[in-house]
Amino acid sequence: MKISAGRVDGFIAKPDPAITAILIYGPDSGLVRERSLTLANSVVDDLSDPFLAAELTGGMIGETPARLADEMLALSLGGGERLVVVRDATESITTPLKLALEATAEANANVTVVIEGGNLSAKSSLRKLCESRNDSAALPCYPDDEEGRARLARSMIQGVGLTVSLDALRTLSGILGENRLSNRGEIEKLILYAGPGAEITEELVLASVGDSASTSLDETVYAAADGNIVDLDCSLTRFWADGGEPVGLMRATQRHFQRLHRVSGLISSGESYEGAARRLRPPVFWKFANRFQNQSRSWPNPALEQALQRLTEAELALKTTGTPGRAACGRTLLAIASMRRTQNH
């Protein structure tokens, strides 16, 4: 049975009792593991009980193909449902799984096997097997987009009785990376940092989430606006290593330049920098206050508008043309940094 990405959460919440083998695959290894654990816990109460659950790897099955059928045919001590989890599954388990499913069907065995695969292509024999059989299901796990990360964060934050501002949620979803388990850890850390009954603001997000990820995001944005190409290159390298996303970086840079544009416009109309900066919501994070002030005075309005146009076009291209994200993002930020350098000469 082939399960579409949009139906996966519903399937996991209420698995089909006719399904014996559930393949979970995709590029998001953290989400694969999270969904595998959720399903496993829905089958048995104690995953550490060897009479209820067994854990194999693709390598173990490759060395002893009959072992998968042996574990699936084994009876639980109490006579209830038995669980077999297969981690790091590859094409090598396709034939052993097919034979094991036929054996368990003939024996009417009460067993569920949860299989963790990698980023299997549509040509994968393991994926094809699980998609084509009525007693099997294949569940894709793709990285959360920014909207999905926002839903995850909102759910976790509201689940413990906290509130989160819209700006904070947007910033948080832009900072988080592609790994679901890692994102959960960062959100949990934010919740602990905020404390009971707090409203999570953008300042709290920037101060606490992903010390390396949030810092590399901020440093990349500020390096581009500073016109510091050397720092920009280093910051980009750290940002990609931290699992940052091109679209999230483009949006964060857009927000930064929108804020610069607002302050610059207010200064042009006669307001002091201090008065203009106080109008920003959320306020400029204290660690970057001096750099933001320097940037607001170095970028004239026409250049800020040109930069914003470049950023908007780059984000649109990332979403619609299949442009290699990191390369396109890097070129755009380099162009922005070069514009700033031009303003200074």
What would a concise description of this structure say?
The chain has 345 residues and is an alpha/beta fold.
Description of the structure:
With 345 residues, the chain is α/β, with parallel strands linked by helices. The protein is built from 17 helices and seven strands. Helix 5 links the parallel strand 3 and strand 4. The radius of gyration is 25 Å and the shape is elongated.
* Amount of beta strand: 5-15%
CATH topology of the largest domain: Zinc Finger, Delta Prime, domain 3
Characterize the overall form. elongated
Biggest β-sheet: strands ordered side by side in the sheet: 2-3-4-1-5
Largest sheet: 5 strands, parallel
| Overall structural domain count | 2
CATH class of the largest domain: Mainly Alpha
Percent helix: 55-70%
Number of discrete helical segments: 17
* Class by SSE composition: alpha/beta
**CATH architecture classification of the largest domain:** Up-down Bundle
What's the N-to-C terminus distance? 63 Å
Topology as a string of helices (H) and strands (E): HEHEHHEHEHEHEHHEHHHHHHHH
Radius of gyration: 25 Å
Unreliable spans are none
Topology:
Blueprint: H1 8-13, E1 21-25, H2 29-43, E2 53-57, H3 58-63, H4 66-73, E3 82-89, H5 94-107, E4 111-117, H6 125-132, E5 136-140, H7 146-159, E6 163-164, H8 166-175, H9 180-194, E7 199-200, H10 202-208, H11 210-226, H12 229-241, H13 246-268, H14 273-278, H15 289-298, H16 301-320, H17 325-343
Parallel strand pairs: 1-4, 1-5, 2-3, 3-4, 6-7
Helix pairs in contact: 4-5, 7-8, 7-9, 8-10, 8-13, 10-11, 11-12, 11-13, 11-17, 12-17, 13-15, 13-16, 13-17, 16-17
